[in-house]
Specification:
This protein is mainly α. The chain has one domain. The longest helix has 33 residues. A two-stranded antiparallel sheet has the order 1-2.
């Protein structure tokens, strides 16, 4: 007994989506590990900024007091804002990859996975390869039908071979 063409295409597409999801999970976990670096940098910048803005004053009785003073260096504030944005971006990228991996496995949220794949193409060279393969798989008509069936519960239209125009 042979499976109909749309069932074979659906099974093949689901296998490809599952394989892509595994790679997305691995990439997301790796990026989570790398996202610790901007967090460490931000914490160290905040510590050094706090130390610089708290000068030590020695009183007549021998006690030392830390008196807060406003930071006069504007570049420190700009650096803190930039590092905060970098940290936020470093945490958003792995979350997007992990969500996309989950959605690829479930054949849900087509547009989200497609946008993540396009943005992943900016991460040369491995992200480009993964993004291009994801775009190729998601662009197939049979994959679109699989997403329609999964998300909307509709029966996919039978696949018709494309007619070549010469």
């Amino acid at each position: 007994m042979t499976l109909p063409q749309h069932a074979r295409a659906s099974s093949r597409d689901q296998n490809h989506l599952d394989a892509l999801a595994i790679v997305y999970y691995l990439a997301g976990a790796f990026l989570f590990c790398l996202s610790a670096l901007p967090i460490i940098g931000l914490v160290s910048m905040l510590k050094s900024h706090a130390r610089a803005s708290l000068p030590t004053v020695v009183t007549n009785s021998g006690f030392t007091l830390s008196v807060p003073s406003p930071s006069s260096d504007p570049t420190t504030g700009v650096a803190l804002v930039a590092m905060s944005l970098l940290t936020l971006l470093a945490l958003m990228a792995p979350v997007a990859l992990l969500l996309s991996a989950r959605f690829l496995q479930q054949s849900r949220r087509y547009l989200f996975s497609f946008v993540v794949a396009v943005l992943l193409c900016l991460a040369f060279p491995l992200g480009t390869v993964l993004g291009v393969f994801t775009i190729i798989v998601l662009s197939r008509e049979s994959t679109k039908q699989l997403y329609l069936r999964t998300e909307w519960g509709t029966r996919p239209a039978p696949l018709r071979p494309r007619q070549r125009t010469t």
